[in-house]
Amino acid sequence: MSLRTVFGACPHDCPDTCAMQVTVENERVIKVQGRADHPNTHGALCTKVSRYPERTYHAERVLHPLKRVSSKTEAPAFVQVSWAEAIADIAARLKAIKDPQAIQPYSYAGTMGLIQGEAMAGRLWNALGAARLDRTICASAGGAGLAATYGHKLGMHTRHFAGAKLIIIWGSNSIASNLHFWTYANQAKREGAKLVCIDPRKTETADKCHQHIAVLPGTDGALALGLMHELIANDWLDRDYIEQYLDGWDELRGKALDWPPERVAEVCGITADEVRKLARDYGTSKPAAIRMNYGLQRVRGGGNAVRLIALLPCLTGAWRHQSGGVLLSASGWNAPFKNPDLERPDLLAGRQPRMVNMSTIGDALLQADPPIQALVVYNSNPVAVAPESPKVVMGFQREDLFTVVLEHFMTDTADLADYVLPATTQLEHLDVHTSYGHTDVLMNQPAIAPLGEAKPNTQIFRELAAALGLTDPCFSDTDEQLAGQAFTADIDMARLREQGWLPLPIPEAPFADGGFRTPTGRAQAAGADFVPNYESAASSPELARRYPLAMISPPARNFLNSSFVKVKSLRDIEGEPLIEMHIGDAVERGLVDGAMVAAFNDRGRYVARLKVSTRARPGVVNGLGVWWRKLGAQGSNVNEVTHQRLTDMGNAPAFYDCLVQVEPA
User: Fold this and answer.
1) Cα–Cα distance between 365 and 397 in angstroms, integer?
2) How large is the C-alpha radius of gyration of the chain?
3) What is the distance in angstroms between the CA of the first residue and the CA of the last residue of the chain?
4) How far apart are CA 74 and CA 91, in angstroms?
5) Which of 329, 407, 396, 323 has the alpha carbon at shortest distance from 146?
6) Under 8 Å CB-to-CB from 334, ≥6 apart: which residues?
7) Burial of residue 104, with CB atoms counted within 10 A of its CB: 0-12 exposed, 13-18 middle, 19 or more buried
């Protein structure tokens, strides 16, 4: 019997970026565990990733190149072809496109790895002069808001939340989506800290906190201004910190004074006392820490909401303490260590191809001028995850659109491809990773050889580059060479290979003495303000009369976007697509628990099982996602009703800014 252990890293779109230990017996993975010696993983993986062998060895995994033989409006039918035939035909189809800007790559965070993500793919698109992709679908509104305030996506260390006396968990179901942060929050709780959850939904995290404040979707910025009002009124301010390290205070102060608790309560759908009590807790608890997550920025005013929340620790001086401050993303700490030339932007040779926003791919496929002629999708499932999916589906169904999808499974997107190419999973390839939740870099070593005919993304793009006649030596770089090029000389690659992870040298209390990454070195408050939703009773009263319920679509606990939907054991835990509704809203509509209902608006109609639940607040329904469309009751998911309008900052989708009505299906 051959038994060995391989060090890896979780590749998925999660702030924890866990260090993994993979046990291989007779060249088959039998166990995936969290590494106990990695401080941020401390031996624990989430339920999803612990099932990684089940995903890798899944009976329905795509293991050979597939070519479409049906029309795109029929039930999908494919035949197996050789790699040589697939690559030659794909290259010929791409060569036939006269304007390279009509070739559109589409990718996101199916892997967060620097190598299997964009290293070789980016070189190919740059060399061709293909259209660029604005990768906005998850976090760019919040990232833009944070960068406008601090100069980059920066925050406190996760482990220091354990020393806080007050922790506000804002827009995050941490138990489900940020498990290792929750370990530190729970440690603080055991030592006497108060935990407050701010979320429209009463999540599993809210269940474990001392207080849950159920704001209406999109009103988080108003609550932040209300807290500032009370901090000013009660002089819970660190005036010295404000004077030394904050620009734009007079403007911000004037705005905050326009938001007394009564106004905040009316806008947010909470009580004035909740505003006052939270402000008192925040203003008098030392140190106080805020953990934001990306749920709160998926609305029209998401960027400004993040800006206002990020300014709170600047007003109280919470940044003076290592256990005070705020964390949304720590990815900016990685920036000085990442090689900006890994994707070889010089291959563009001065060309400036058009940019397509991935969040409006539905409109782009139907309206772009000149039209998108070819689409290459990897590390993403846009037919399931992009907003206003009726338009996305219609665009993918164009018979004149040539679509190539690199995948593990026949997803909703793969079903509409002309070619499906089998990609390796994290257990089968080399990669290197940074994190947006902690400040370590990690390396993932392949534990097993690729199954079937699966190939790493890098190899697929190498072969495609060769077939397209691209001869630059960079297309011959191996994955090992790419890993060596991913970081600056400040990262000891030999040590990283040996240990599997390395910490970056980041200050323990990074902004205790200012030092923000802005041009002045001070946090920036000018321009930050509350921006209301596109769709609400206040901003669109006529629409709200027809569609009076706000719908949010938070992730199902056992899925990660759409990545784990195919794992049956996880799907069995989730059961089926659900719409959660408060009992008062259900009774008003004559709806009963367990019935099939339709949430609908002018854009579409989404049918799912109703769950009457205390997790839904009055006036808000929760469409848990992201299920594959073809697993839905009528071949759709919650994105049937979302829209393609973009946020105030970062050009991101406003998924949670959505009005619907619900009726029996």
Assistant:
1) 10
2) 24
3) 56
4) 26
5) 329
6) 434, 435, 439, 441, 504
7) buried
Q: Which residues of 44-53 are buried (b: 16+ CB within 10 A; e: fewer)?
A: ebbebbebbb
Nearest to 159 by CA among 516, 508, 514: 508
Q: Note the pLDDT tens digit of each residue in 429-468.
A: 999 999 999 999 999 999 999 999 999 999 999 999 999 9
Q: How far apart are CA 141 and CA 147, in angstroms?
A: 10
Query: How far is the C-alpha of 469 from the C-alpha of 474, rounded, in Å?
Result: 13
Amino acid at site 332: G
Residues 35, 9: Cα–Cα separation, whole Å: 10
The total number of residues written for the chain in this structure = 665
* pLDDT value at residue 575: 83
Are the beta carbons of 129 and 351 closer than 8 angstroms? yes
CA distance 250 to 448: 60
Question: What six digits make up the tokens of 198?
Answer: 């701010």
Considering Cα of 442, then 446, then 452, then 458, what sign does the dihedral take?
positive
Residues 278 and 213: beta-carbon distance below 8 Å: yes
d(CA 336, CA 371): 38
Q: Is-contact 422 394, C-beta < 8 A?
A: no
Please give the sequence-ordered ranges of beta strands (E in DSSP) within 249-338, or none if there are none: 288-292, 325-327
Cα–Cα distances in angstroms (integers) from residue 376 to residues 70, 89, 332, in the given order: 19, 14, 29
Q: What is the dihedral of CA 235, 241, 247, 252, to 10 degrees?
A: -20
| Pair of tokens at residue 363 | 């409109």
Give how far the C-alpha of residue 508 lies from the chain's centroid of Cα atoms, to the nearest Å. Answer: 26
What is the pTM assigned to this prediction? 0.96
Q: How far apart are the C-alpha atoms of 638 and 366, rounded to whole Å?
A: 21
Residue ranges of E strands in 486-561: 501-503, 523-524, 549-552
Cis peptide bond prior to 456, omega within 30° of 0: no
Look at residue 415 and give its three-state secondary structure: helix
- Give the 3-state secondary structure percentages of the chain, helix then strand then coil, rounded to 5: 35, 20, 45
Q: Read off the pLDDT of residues 277-335 as tens digits, 9 standing for 90 and up.
A: 999 999 999 999 999 999 999 999 999 999 999 999 999 999 999 999 999 999 999 99
**Tokens, residue 163:** 């020393």
Residue matched to tokens 């070593």: 445
Distance separating alpha carbons of residues 360 and 389, to the nearest angstrom: 10
In degrees, to the nearest 5, what angle opens at C-alpha 405 toward C-alphas 404 and 408? 155
More confident residue, 44 or 220: 220
* Neighbouring residues of 486: CB distance < 8 A, sequence distance ≥ 6: 114, 115, 119, 338, 339, 342, 432
Instruction: Please give the single-letter amino acid code of residue 284.
Output: T
4 in Cβ contact with 447 (< 8 Å): no
